[in-house]
Amino acid sequence: MHRYRSHTCGALRADNAGETARLSGWVHRVRDHGGVLFIDLRDHYGLTQIVADPDSPAFAVAETLRAEWCLRVDGMVKPRTPETINPDLPTGEIEVFASEIEILSDAPELPVPVFGELDYPEDTRLRYRFLDLRRETLHQSIMLRSSVVAKMRELMTGTGFTEFQTPILTASSPEGARDFLVPSRLQPGRFYALPQAPQQFKQLIMMAGFDRYFQIAPCFRDEDPRADRLPGEFYQLDVEMSFVTQDDVFEAMEPVIRGVFEDFAEGRSVTAEFPRIRHADVMRLYGTDKPDLRNPIAMQAVTDHFRGSGFKVFAGMIEADESVEVWAIPAPGGGSRAFCDRMNSWAQGEGQPGLGYIFFREEEGAISGAGPVAKNIGAERTAAMREQLGLGTGDAVFFVAGVPKKFVDFAGSARDRIGTELELIDENAFALAWIVDFPMYEWDEEAKKVEFSHNPFSMPQGGLEALENEDPLTIDAFQYDIICNGFEIGSGAIRNHRPEIMKKAFAIAGYGEDVLESKFGGMLRALQFGAPPHGGMAAGLDRIVMLLAGAKNLREVTMFPMNQQAEDLLMGAPSEVTPQQLRDLGIRLAPQSGG
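^ that's the sequence the OP posted. Answer follows.
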């Protein structure tokens, strides 16, 4: 028999009854039932119940056992009595009567419990991540992640893509987030950067004559952590294709993304055909470019219903500024004064003066609007607005007014809040869509200049002619995102493969040819030697797994994440280095202000 096990802790079944088995694993918990000890023994594969009765030679050792001690157990497999069968456990029809227990290693009192799913401080969980990873939910999420990666590779290679690895040490780039810099010992005073994405390399792969590339790529960005992005590093399914249009990319990638979700949906519905929504439209309908489409609420402009009306607050704003609009946020089933007042209070808590509303009720056989707004604009305008929005008895509508670009974020938050409060969101669905036609540029109010809004290497719609003759802020690009349940899970573009277009595009954003040559010289040279039309995208592995696992935070689907301060508490990174290491690199640390 093998030194440590003949079976795993998830393998034994009723037809193994009568066999002698050897198991190794961790003590999940110990229960004393009238002098008979029941030990749940756990390994990576499952859990088996071990029985040690007072007549067993293993009983004396069993009495000493504590949680998370590592054991080897020999014993006889016996069927459980019908009333003690555990239908929730794959091994629930049997138990192993221990004849010998060997303690392979013991453990002190645990800083983080493994049995159960108790809520413990995050820093404690990360410091003892090796224990945290033994917990069932987290362990399953990490295994799910591995399965998702395997499925992605299967689907990509099955559709003619080839996996290539791109460099980790590369050059710093002026666009995007902050780079992580790596000093060069052999080139004193010069630095490598860890790649924020393999963007330039994957385009160069296309220019090198390869056709369909993919990679499960690590990406590094020195930016503040968010719930939907870990500090330091993340992983993405990175893709590029030659001789393709935007439609070709969609046709290649939609089955892959859909296939991954369908494979791990566990009964939840997945969008059969991803709708395509223009960026300008998605902002007006949902107030965000990553809407949760499980929420059926779509906003509409109702400016004309308030123009010249008795509701002087909105009417005055419209008259004073032609760029002012009033948007309606329908609330099906929200037609009570209590709910409307609660939403108004929420808006004030968000720093807004309030949230105007009308709620609809039936009076004398007819539907009428109630509330201060309805009273001030009158029955005729209220009825016209209700008809436009398709609302009825028991429904409500909320209003936001002003210049849309200033209130759009709040309007989107209000839509989300209403959908959540009224339980309109289908929790058993994955609602996916393409967001297309992103603007090529945006106005940076702080820098008072035009800046790239998305990806600087994208092809502008209209090409060089548009760049030379149109207002940059009106030019759309062949840029697109995939969204799911309120998260952006992928982003991509058809690339700019013409050097003259690239030079003009960067010049509009304030980057001269000297910057282009110094920072993107390799790309620029490659574009001058017969670059093919190409495009691609990247899908965020971490976010996809988070959605599939039903987790609320990326740390719950990442094996060894950092904390909110970008610290690895388990390994002690970032750490100080020795003076000799700094001398080797030609680096002297400057004193920190306030230090």
